Structures are given as structure tokens and as C-alpha cells.
Amino acid sequence: MANKVAIITDSTINLPDGAFEEYNIQSVPLIIQWDGKSYIDQIELTTKEFYERLATSKTLPSTSQPSISAFVEVYQPLIDQGYDIITLPLSAGISGTFLSASAAAGQFPIGRIEVLDVKSVSVGLGIIVMKVARAAKAGASLQECREIALDVASRVKIYFSVETLENLRKGGRINTAAAFLGTALDMKPILEFRGGLIEAKERVRTSKKAHARLLELTEEIAGPQGELEMVGFVSAAAQPAMEELRQAAHERFTIKEEFSGELSPVLGTHVGIGTVGIAFLA
Description:
This protein is of the alpha/beta class. It folds into two domains: 5-154, Rossmann fold, CATH 3.40.50; 156-281, Hypothetical Protein Tm841, Chain: A,domain 3, CATH 3.30.1180. Helices cover 39% and strands 24% of the residues. The chain contains eleven helices and 15 strands. It has helices spanning 19-22, 47-54, 68-80, 97-105, 122-137, 142-155, 166-170, 176-179, 207-222, 239-252, 265-271; strands at 5-10, 26-28, 31-34, 37-40, 62-64, 84-87, 113-115, 156-161, 188-194, 197-204, 227-228, 230-235, 254-255, 258-262, 276-281. The chain has a six-stranded mixed beta sheet, sandwiched between helices. Strands 2-1-6-7 form a four-stranded parallel beta sheet, sandwiched between helices. The protein has a three-stranded antiparallel beta sheet with strand order 4-3-5, covered by helices on one side. The longest helix is centred in the middle third of the chain and has 16 residues, at 122-137. It is globular, with a radius of gyration of 18 Å. It starts with a strand and ends with a strand.
């Protein structure tokens, strides 16, 4: 009989309310550095505190991956309890978290810990983790969980709009050429998370048009009045805009399951206040 599978992720993920507890999902936090002090993401600096401070701060924080030992500390008791482990961190294309998780896994017996780069983030990563967590709870093996993660990851799309590309440019998360996309006439950039990287998609003249365009892009994949198996909505201190997007999505699509949340402080650092996004599995 296969071992039970435990799921590990990181603090940049968004999940439905209660999912961590229901599926015993564990999260390893990233680190935020701000004005000479380090904070553990969402533990020493909550999402609410972060956005309140960011709104008036003259400085932009920086972020760093968890240490190898932070993953070892989570892995060890689970291995001791007989679990196999699947670790699903945010994309290796924008963070070294995958490398820390992989290095930690190397300290345990081969075949007990699978660290996968599913090239996703936030609510997109949340969709993948939910599908894997449900399979694990139903008795799926580590190999079966791996196959599910890769299959779902290949079908999840993420689109988002930002108020400015300045944060992404400063943080090195988007190339300089792409950063020019949003400079002319205060155009609002629309971005896609593709292949594990943030890619500039296009630009429109207002935030309202940008948010409408997110749904048009979704429709290009799902079709008019298409069915969306799972949808995640997310914002960076822009809940009214996110709620408008959510309501408009319900008018446009048949949504089987949904959840929403605020971008973690680590991700909020890089995209800035006002960001609104959608991830979906069609």
C-alpha cells in the first residue's frame, strides 16, 4: 500500500478558505526585507499591514526565498510519520524557492519527496494544489499526485493587470523592453503568467478596460458562455475592482468552483497596489 501524501507549498499561494486545515497543506514562508529589517511573509507582516504600509512608503521592499533548513524542518516530521511529500512552490522562473525546496529534499531518502516546478503562482498555484490535495486525501500515490499536478498545471491560465510596471522592473521580474510597454500615455499593462515567467501581453488605456480585457482573454480560451472548472480571483489591495471582475465573470461564464484572495506581501511587492488578476482551469 502506498504511503499517504503530504502537500507542501509556500506563502505566495492563494487557496480557498479552510483548505490548509481540511487537506493538511503546509506552507513554508518567504522573507521580506524592508528598511533594514526582515519579516517572515504573512507571519511577522500580515497582508493587511503590508498594503497599508506600502501605500505610504517611500521605499520598496525586497524579497528572498526560504532557507533550505526551513524546508527540512517541515519535511522531517512528515517523513518520520511515514508520509511521502509533494512540494509545489511558486515558479522557479521568478523565485529561488524551488531550489531551496529541492536542496532540502536531497537530504532525505530518494523517492520520498517530489519537488515540482509547476510554473505557476498565487491563485493559479492554488488551483493546482487543490486538485492534488483532493487526490491525496482520496488515497492517490506520490506518482499519481505528480501526474495530476503536471496535467492541471498545463491547463491553468493566469492573466492580470497592473497599474504600473515600475515594481516589476525594479524587482527584476520583467525585462526592461517589456517595461516600456506601459510607459506611454499611462497605459495599463496586461500581463500573462506563461511558461513560469511574467510576459507582457498588451496594454489598454484605463484600468476598467484592462479588467474587461482579462475576461476577453479568458473567453478566447473557454469560449463564449464557456465552462470554467475552477477560477481564482486575486487583487493587491483592490478588492472592489476584483469583485467587479468576479461578478462580470459570472455573467460571462459557467463557473463550477471559485475562490478569491489578496496577493501575498511577497507578490504584492513585485506587482504593486491596484493589481487585479484571474486564474482559471477550463
